[in-house]
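Discussion board: Methods & Data

I've been asked by a reviewer to show the raw model output for two of the constructs in my manuscript, not just the figures. I'm not sure how much to include, so I'm pasting the format here to get opinions. Each protein appears as its amino acid sequence followed by a line of discrete structure tokens. Is this the kind of thing reviewers expect to see in a supplement, or should I convert it first? Here is construct A:
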Amino acid sequence: MRMTTVMVAMICLASQMISVASQPGTSGQVANNDAFDLIIRHGTVIDGTGVAPAKADVAIAGRHIVRIGDLSGMAARREINATGLYVAPGFINLHSHASPAALATAENMLTQGVTTELINADGGGGTDIGEQLAQVASGGLALNIGAYIGFNSAWSSVVGEVDRRPAAEDIARMREILTANLERGAWGVSAGLDYKPAYYATTEEVVEVVKAAQPYRTNFTNHDRITPETKYSSRAGIAETIGIGARAGLLPVITHMKVQGHEQGTASTLLALMRDATNRGNYTAADVYPYVAGQTGLGALLVPGWAQDGGREQMLERFKDASTRSRIVTAVEEAMTARFGGPAGVFLPATRRELVDVMKEFGVGPGEAVLRLLETENQAAILRFGVEPDVVKILQHPTSSIACDCGASLPPRGSHPRNYGTYPRVLGRYVRESKALTWQEAVRKMTLLPAVTVGMVDRGAIAVGMVADVTIFDPATVIDRATYEEPTLLSEGIRYVLVNGVSAVQDGKVTGERGGQVLRRSKNMASRPMPSFGQHVVSANGTIERADDGTPVTVTMDVATREGARRATGVLRIAKGLDVVLTAREFGMVQTAPGWGTLTAVGRTPAGVAHAVHVVVEQSDPWREGRVPSVMVAVEGLLEARGRADVRIR
């Protein structure tokens, strides 16, 4: 029998021991060996890895999953009867435009099963995510929130709204903005190169700025730039995103991937670009939502870049010149035809009117109608870009996550049905009804795949030691109800949702609990492909280093997984000096990438109190002098430490 082994022998960690604060009402501990806070009984577990569903009970203590299996002989303070239901990890939305005012309730997202959102998509947000996250969390969070740092925000704050070439000091300042926010815990660099003024940046300038993030081993997620110079080609835009990621040393993510307008029907060709890049060694991912129309500002993707130079007021001034206006009208109509099939592809959700009806009212053509509407207000538009067969192929691609291009919102802001229906729509329409995806593949694309794409190590799977973000749904009834005409109808079939072990949805209704947290990425959390279970060996021998109080923290670990297995077995011991702090024999997942590995576990103190543990092993740690091997260990409620170790990974 072939084995995968993770062995860390007598690793003495040099970092200061840091107390990990518990959340209110969630100690992270189990006072008695068999007394849990919650047991989810009789459900079918879809664990997020893509393996077939299996019957199992799931026990939760505090914020973590602590046991999985037949728990019929064990007790809990509370139980959920999941008979006939599927138990999955909480869904992770990689592309969030959440309204801060809605994050305390997040009804539209929780009733889709979403437990984590990453804001600042498409390059937006502030240039200090520490301050931004503190503000959005100040009223409490119903779900977890993390943030990207936006290239667009950095560009506009330094270069401004005008089309000009940045000086060397401008490039340096933008790089500083990115690295400062990666230090603050950003989950990657997002961009929307289709939006002005970032649209004005050359590919070379984008690469020069974002490669500052390369040491962080993170991702570059981009709304592709579709230009008249490429005849509005999605293929060219996707190729640019892949090229920027590869040249900058970042994992490229093609965000809300689509095949637009005149290129409809060519999804296979575009997906081949991703496969070819991955085969060249530049792993490429994507995210996708299950609709053939998107939503953005009416003029954002229609009015040409040169007409938007300098911002909205400058654009409106250009509208006043007759000859310039004529040029803009022509350009708007060309973009509308190439990208959205003409005026029939434009719907105005605020007034629930088609652009063709506005044209009839004004007695003008489509381009002139758009300009007249923009002169009145900067309103939103739903733009019909695609065809169903392309959406299905992108959904099926193995490295595409499900993301909604939406976020926590309050009516009537949710003017696209994706705000209320994305995840149940995939489960109901593309799994149960059309069988385009299996249950386990759809859940993988909503959970572990997005988690590893951005570098998470303790979410995205139902496994011992993972954080208890859990979504329980009814496979027979889960479905979306929101439509373009009634976009704020809540989805059905999401029965229970836990956020950090706190009940957020009970019997299909939001509870009002605010169990969400701000999530920050550490520098040892690497963006990576899905783990290939049972394919790697990680071993380490420690070098004695001393903690601040002079006492070495020692980790002894000998853990193995059988090939293809998701759970590990073995022993993990943590000691301070000669005193054993914790021993673990209950393990979750071992995940590996080249030169890197992580695992989760639940261990117990000599007094029998349980604590969740996660470990990250680095063969060549870029954040330690000399890039020496290192190990990081975090024990919930007890300590966090990292330090040098002799590590082998193969």
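Construct B, same format:
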Amino acid sequence: MISRRRFLQTNAAGLALPLAGGGAPQPLPKISPELTTPDRDYWSDWPHYLTAKVNAARARRMAALEGLRTAAQVQKRIQAVRDKVWELVGGRLEKTPLNPVVSGTIERKTYRIEKVIFESQPKVFVTAHLYVPAPGNPNARPPFPAILSSLGHTSNGKAYRNYQYVFQTLARMGYVVLAFDPFGQGERHQYLDPKTGKSRLGPTGEHSQAGRPLLLLGASFSQYRAWDAVRALDYLLTRPEVDPTRIGLTGHSGGGTMTMYLCALESRIHAAVEVEGNSENLAGPKYDPPGAVADAEQNLVGGLAMDSGDSGPSLLVDRGDLLMAFAPKPLLLCFTTHDSGTTYSPTYVEGTDEVFQELKSAYKRLGAEEKVGLFTSTLPHDFDFLNRQAAYSWFNQWLGKKGVPTDETEFESSPHDDLNCTSTGQVLTSLGGRSVLQLNIDRARTISAGSSPLPSIEKLAEHKENIRRSLRKILALPSRRAALNPHIASSFEGLGLFYQSFDFRSEAEVRVPGWWIKPKGETAALPTIVYVSEHGKDSVAEDPSDMASVALKGFAVCAIDLRGIGVTYPRSPKGGPLFYRGEHSDSGYAWAGLTIGKPVLGQRVWDILCCLDYLETRQDVDMSRLHLIGIGGGAIASLMAAVLDDRLKSIVLNRGLADFRSVVESEDYSIALAWLVFGILREFDLPDLAAALAPRACLLLNPTGPLEETLSLQAIEAKYRNAMDVYSKADAGDRLKLLVQPDGEFRNALLDWLKNA
């Protein structure tokens, strides 16, 4: 859609000409007076859709919780949640040798710090500090209770001042503490600037950068984070100083959210303190899209998917269930009201209270009401003094250290380099090993190693139907069409063309607006081009327009805005613009869609399929000559729609991503999360979908790599070799065309293609 700034910049000279008397005055467009203008608040449709889906999931989950009347029912749900969460994050990994090394020790009066390095996966090095009470410590009576700490999103990880303060005090109190750096923090930065040796992206950025491609493989970044913690606990329990019957767990902020995961995933923990984590349900009170979304590991992808299988309705899991799975063991939630609308969503306080009420109900059913607590800090987001005191007291109460003073002494600092476990302060530059990027690549190779061979010519139809079946499931498409309710908003004529503005409904809450353009005065059914661009529909109505020029050659053009694009870009949430900045459409709506099992890409593919239904209702469309053009991300959606619907005679994919695998294998990529779909690489990639179009005509024009760079023809042919073989088997080798040319030649390339398609 053209912006006001762009319009003024590109048309300033043209606007001056009439004022200077240059050129004859142009006739005004002929506008149909009988048409009415409908409400054009398309920006509200997607929020309404998402709200309806989330509230339906909320209602089902709340009904399930209200049905927990006995201790046995609570325990049954807890076990189901534990199994479900492992499934959601991608499953347990193989336990391999930890190969622990103590690279140095810092001696202090009442405790020592051991600098530990272990392997959570083969050649995946984890840096950690182990705080051990010294023999002269008056509170030290071995074997010691131990605390495992998952860290929040601090760049310096375990060396963050207030986290160190917690660990120092616990060690003085007679606890062993193990604090380990997560991926992207401390000594485990994954995206290093070679000039500075520091992260290019920051902790949250690193997590999302690694986590988004992982979705394509059917896993979550929370799997890597949780597995690091599981293996850290394995190491902690190898220490002879540790009492395995008194293990505590705590974490702040993002580490608080990971504490929530471990409450569900790790049964060896005996008491937990979750501090200022994401302790609100996505399907919480007063849901306002996109809701309480966060970075890659903090969203329970598929947790609120409403699909029912043969065994009945699926178990719905929200963040509150992570904590409930810890019952009846001692659990304290700490939060601050300062986080509402800043660190977390505007309903954070209300949402946290709702989760606590859920916990109180479950603990009461289990006869353990006194083992769950809620503490409110009045200070800004941090593991502050008030939270620290609450944590010390809670652990003392439940891990056998009642009466031990919780007073803090002066903070003991060390030079940053002295705290490093590695020689350079970064694992990747000192030890090497496997980066998170390499982990993703290795996983992709494992998946592709079992891919099936190309089908024979006799099996092509069966192969295509199998792909369609899998694609419908992956995209989570609706099982039935909604009423289209088409509406013509306005029409006018100009420059030899007839224009209409229209919309139809692809779902009950969602209108798809579009432009209809055809030669002026033409009444016959015309060959029709459906135009789908990631930049929206309005470029076809600009002057000049490539598609308007194509229409003058005897075609009708139907350009639509897929949901979330162009005039359907969603309104801002009613509350909390500070929290939602940067996480609004592509990221926020995409994470929410993935959580409820409705990926945005699937929603957009559905919009295209319903557009074909809409064209069936128009008498000026020749359905036997229907073409589809997808631009950018729209090319991905268009390819999938074409695989699913045979009504399309030919498909043109311009500047579309060549393959998803390249995103997994690249350290940097620019594709938005909304164009990714969970688990697709377990089944197929984009070249496999192109092969499923055979024998229909398909033009791949300037396919791009992960950074939207145009690939060479040789590189494209390598990626699409199997697709070309399938077309050859179908005796249609000339109907799949790969073309690389300057972007300015799009119109000519399109017209040449349409002559023969």
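Answer (T.O., handling editor elsewhere):
This is acceptable in a supplement if you add a one-line summary per construct. For B, something like: The mean pLDDT is 92.
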